[in-house]
Every structure is written in C-alpha cells, then in structure tokens.
Specification:
Blueprint (H helix, E strand, L loop, with lengths): L6 H27 L3 E2 L5 E2 L12 E2 L2 E3 L4 H10 L3 E9 L11 E10 L3 H19 L4 E3 L2 E3 L6 E4 H8 L2 H14 L20 H16 L9 E7 L8 E2 L2 E12 L2 E8 L4 H19 L7 H7 L5 E7 H9 L13
Parallel strand pairs: 1-5, 9-10
Antiparallel strand pairs: 2-4, 3-4, 5-6, 6-14, 7-8, 10-12, 11-12, 12-13, 13-14
Helix pairs in contact: 1-3, 1-9, 2-8, 3-9, 4-5, 5-6, 7-8
C-alpha cells in the first residue's frame, strides 16, 4: 500500500483530515461551553477494563488502556463533577474498516445526572459533527442518517421483537430474556484471542451476538437510534434499572447501522462491582485462557464515587460518518 506520507494519498485523504480537525475543535468547544474540564488519565493502567472479548497491549506488567473509564471514575470519587477525555486508546487485534488498534476515544462523565442526560449529549454531538463539516446527513456505505430528525429509541427487547422473527428473538434473548433479560456480552469486533471450548454460557452469548448482528443494519437509518436497557449480564459497569433489576442502565447510539457510543448509569456499589468483574474475568479466562487483574484501587474509589452517568464515543467513527470516509484509515493522521 502507498504510505500515508505520499503526496497522492495525503491529497486524497486531506478532506477527511480537515473534517477531523473541525470536529475535534467543535467538540472541545462544546464541552468547555457546557462547563466540563478536560482530563488526561495515564495511558498505562493496572487493569484495562471489564470487557470479556476485548484484548489489550501489555507493557511491563501494566496495560495500555482500552478506555480511561476506571481512572475517570477515580477522579469523580476525588470530587470532579463534569469531566471529559479526548485522546488515544488501544485494543489489540481490532482491525478493519471501522476498527483500529490505536484509536481516539471521546469519554465523558456527569456526576449527579441520570443516564438520559448523557443520551441527549450523544445526540447533540452527532448533530455538532454534521454541522462542523457542513454535512446534511451522516453516511456509511449505502446508508444515510439525518441526525437532526427525531431520534428513534428502542429497548433491547423491543428491537429484537421488531426486527427478528420470533424464533430468533427468543433464541437471542435466552431463557432469562423471555421473562426480561438477554445474556452475555456482544462482540462487535474481531480480536486475536483463540476461544476455548464453548459451554452453555457461550451458546447464549453467541445467540445474543447473532441477534444483535441481525438487527444492527436496521438501527440509525434514517435517523439516529438509541438502543437501551441491556440485560445486566451485558453491562458489567452499569447499575440496574430501578423498575426492573434484570436490565441495566446501558445504552448504545447508532447511525447508519454503526455503533457510535456506549453509555451507562454508572454502578457505584463496590461489592456488586467486584462480583461482576470477577464473573467477567472468569468468563474471559474460560474462553481465552487468560484474564486481567481486578483493580482494587478502582473498587475502593467506588465507595466514594457519587451517582453519575458516562459515555464512551468513537471519535474516528463519528468523523467517518460526518465526512463520508470509506475506511477508518481515511480519518487517521498517521494510519498504519
């Protein structure tokens, strides 16, 4: 492949990079106008997160963070109230048109606010990106999304029932899901881990993952879509919904069938968080033969953390959809 520094390739990518710069400037201005403080957590962490199916780069017994989530929640425990991060994260093996091993994450937290508030933030930022580039719609492949139209909202159960045949919806939801909750975590990107032999938990995960894959093309076109109330087993870091303890305050934002953001009403109970992390790491080890350490400092901080909501948004993906880019490498300044 022609190197990114060749005049020809850079000329072809220049409009996308210009759009990236405009969106990043607009995003920072938006957060500052909202009274947020930009923070810079360390990139090296004791534990890179809670995800079963994500792999991380290890360096001298620590890990390049896959998200700054644990560090930012510690800052909330320290007394910060409205904080955002716009910087690099790393996930080993995530390579493709929508994935890069080194990518830019936009992550923010609001102490004292319900997760419906950060849902509104996500909608505002999607509209901001379109406005910053002069785009009337977001685009990905053969789909378009009007971010200024009324946002569609579906509970996970509602989306399954709407877009899947009843037999597949029931299989995806599993036994618990027929009373209220689907099970296990959705994989949305490849990774280099080699799975160990699968058991019943893996079967349920695979059924749920297959169901999500089937409905994703329907989400975020012609308008933004918020998918919310995931099962607790799909939301290791989110608190349970008050009206139904089987589902959690987790949501994802979609545009053009592409997941842009993943947000929570944050779990702040240290005992329940420990149990969920232990369960996730047990599943990770069972599947892949290795797991991450539990960050005891993070659990200690949760005891001091106020109620909060938070979101992680893939900045590169947002730029792609707002600029009409064909591949994530089009919007990275120095792609591989």
């Amino acid at each position: 492949m022609t190197p990114f520094w060749s005049h020809e390739r850079h000329r072809d990518r220049a409009p996308f990079l210009k759009a990236r710069a405009a969106i990043m400037r607009a995003v920072r201005d938006w957060f500052h106008d909202q009274g947020f403080t930009e923070v810079e957590p360390q990139a090296l962490a004791l534990s890179p997160g809670a995800e079963v199916h994500v792999d991380a780069f290890e360096a001298s017994g620590r890990f390049l963070h896959t998200s700054p989530e644990f560090a930012m929640k510690k800052l909330l425990a320290a007394g910060e109230e409205k904080i955002f991060f716009l910087g690099k994260c790393w996930r080993r093996g995530e390579i493709g048109p929508l994935h890069a091993e080194e990518f830019t994450m936009l992550e923010w937290y609001r102490a004292g606010d319900a997760y419906q508030r950060v849902m509104q933030d996500c909608i505002a930022l999607a509209r901001l990106a379109a406005s910053a580039t002069g785009a009337r719609v977001l685009r990905w492949r053969n789909k378009t999304c009007d971010p200024f139209a009324e946002t569609e909202r579906f509970k996970v159960r509602e989306a399954f029932e709407r877009y899947l045949p009843s037999s597949l919806a029931e299989e995806g939801l599993g036994e618990e899901g027929r009373s209220n909750a689907p099970t296990l975590e959705h994989v949305d990107a490849p990774n280099p881990l080699t799975p160990s032999p699968q058991g019943r938990g893996s079967e349920l995960h695979d059924a749920f993952s297959a169901a999500i894959t089937r409905i994703e093309p329907h989400l975020g076109s012609p308008a933004l879509t918020l998918l919310y109330e995931y099962p607790v087993t799909e939301a290791a870091l989110a608190q349970r919904c008050a009206h139904d303890p089987n589902v959690a305050e987790r949501f994802e934002l979609y545009a053009c069938g592409v997941e842009l953001a993943n947000g929570f009403g944050e779990l702040t109970d240290p005992a329940e968080q420990r149990a969920r992390l232990a369960e996730a790491m047990t599943e990770k080890h069972r599947r892949y033969g290795r797991s991450w350490p539990i960050d005891e400092d993070f659990l200690a901080a949760l005891a001091q953390m106020p109620p909060a909501s938070g979101v992680a948004l893939g900045l590169d993906r947002l730029v792609m959809l707002a600029s009409g880019a064909r591949h994530i490498n089009d919007v990275l300044w120095t792609p591989p």
